[in-house]
Amino acid sequence: MRKPFIAGNWKMNNTRAEAKALVEALKPLVAGIDNVEIAVAPAFTCLEAVSPLLAGSNIGLSAQNIAYAPSGAYTGEVSAAMLKDVGCVYAIIGHSERRQFFGETDASVAKRVRAALDNGIIPIVCIGETLQEREDGRTFDVVLTQLVEGLAAVESSEATLVVIAYEPVWAIGTGKTATPEQAQEVHAAIRARLAECFGGEIAEAIRIQYGGSVNASNAKTLLGQKDIDGALVGGASLKADAFVEIIRGAC
Ligand code: 13P
Fold it and tell me: 211 CA distance to ligand 1 centroid (A)?
């Protein structure tokens, strides 16, 4: 059985005070929920402020990225050891905004995934097609290539630690969600490819989140699909009550 996993990607939002207030609002709302794994991914500047507030709670801390190198002359990057030091359990890797605006490639994603696993951080690996790619009939080709290349350095023995987030780029921040059927179709293809890479039993244990305009109203139907094991939530994770509604949809 795969435990549903709902993570809030706060992106470039919230000062430290706002981040702390959001976590303080969220904690009592999710207290006692133990059948869903929950995480929030604040900006790097807020990790240290938020981390002690999450201690002893059922909300895990995630970074929004992770360096592939262990240390050194990599201006602007934050290493796995630094993230561990501040209490991160997860790191989002290869988000489409990183790919689109900051030149991330499948090769750099693979190296970041390796850095995460080498340091005991759970990678949340994002994959997804653009609208043009979908309209050109290339969805499966694009998504499955990103999957295989992004996981190129993952051994079968550690594959169940990895979380995949399928986020169609055209659904991110647009209010346009994939239908449950559209999402399920891609999730099933992802799981089938994972089975080819790592074997069926391992593929059955890997969580695949859906992301892209997930909100309180559409979460339950999306999460009810066979191969959708959680959600990576952007905008709706910035409001505690909306985020908790999504989490309840996974209970
Ligand atoms: P939205 O939920 O705002 O569409 O963002 C999704 C996302 O990119 C999460 O990583």
Answer: 6
E-state strands within 128-211 = 163-166, 207-211
Q: If you take atom 7 of ligand 1, which residue's CA is the nearest one?
A: 234
In whole angstroms, how far apart are CA 55 and each of 15, 21, 112? Answer: 20, 15, 26
How many CB atoms are closer than 10 A to CB 176? 12
Quick check: CB of 214 below 6 Å from ligand 1? yes
Q: Which two tokens stand for residue 68?
A: 């592939």
For the chain, give the percent of residues with pLDDT over 70.
Answer: 100
Mean pLDDT for the chain overall: 97
* Pick from 206, 201, 101, 205: nearest CA to 150: 206
Is the pLDDT reported for residue 1 higher than 90? Answer: no
- Express each pLDDT in 156-174 by its tens digit: 999 999 999 999 999 999 9
80, burial (CB in 10 Å: exposed 0-12, middle 13-18, buried 19+): buried
CB 80 within 8 Å of CB 121 = yes
Our answer to whether residue 167 is catalytic in this structure is yes
pLDDT digits (tens, 9 = 90+) for 147-159: 999 999 999 999 9
